[in-house]
Write a structure and sequence with these properties.
The protein is mainly β and about 160 residues long. It has a single domain, classed as Jelly Rolls. The protein is built from one helix and eight strands. The radius of gyration is 16 Å and the shape is globular. About 25% of the residues are buried.
Length: about 160
């Protein structure tokens, strides 16, 4: 199997695995806390985070509407008190699967922190800007499945 087909098979299998947990969607913002511009951008730097690309697939070969895009699977490990800094998903939709641990999200559209635990899947669409923090005493492991458009976008 070629590298491209192996990567495509790996990504397809991982996405199918995440889809199979369909009922295990992430904690959500309480309805009474959802609002536009609930939280302003913060300038907290990344800390205690490793981000490793496990597989990537150039989507230009998959169809004309996907030119200049890449589908990626990344593994992020966030240490206790670690931070994934403020970033936007305006041009980079993603699904985040919590492999292990508990982490808190501070989203632009929610006035309260959102807690995500093992088995949750967080949906990050174009309306979301946010940051995450591990408030626990153990590392948190996430799998990020995203569609990258701008290769200079180094946001987590």
């Amino acid at each position: 199997m070629s590298n491209g087909k192996l990567s495509a098979a790996l990504v397809t299998g991982l996405l199918a695995g995440v889809a199979s947990v369909g009922s295990a969607f992430a904690g959500e913002c309480p309805a009474d806390k959802m609002m536009a511009n609930a939280r302003e951008a913060v300038t907290i730097e990344a800390s205690g985070v490793t981000d490793n690309v496990l597989a990537a697939l150039a989507l230009a070969e998959e169809g004309p509407m996907l030119a200049d895009r890449q589908m990626r699977v990344r593994k992020l490990v966030i240490q206790p008190d670690g931070v994934v800094p403020w970033h936007s998903h305006g041009d980079r939709p993603a699904l985040i699967y919590v492999v292990e641990g508990e982490i808190h999200e501070y989203a632009s559209n929610c006035a309260a922190p959102i807690t995500h635990v093992t088995g949750d899947v967080a949906v990050e669409n174009h309306d979301v800007s946010h940051w995450w923090k591990n408030l626990s005493s153990a590392p948190v492991t996430l799998l990020s499945f995203d569609i990258l458009h701008d290769e200079s976008d180094h946001a987590m």
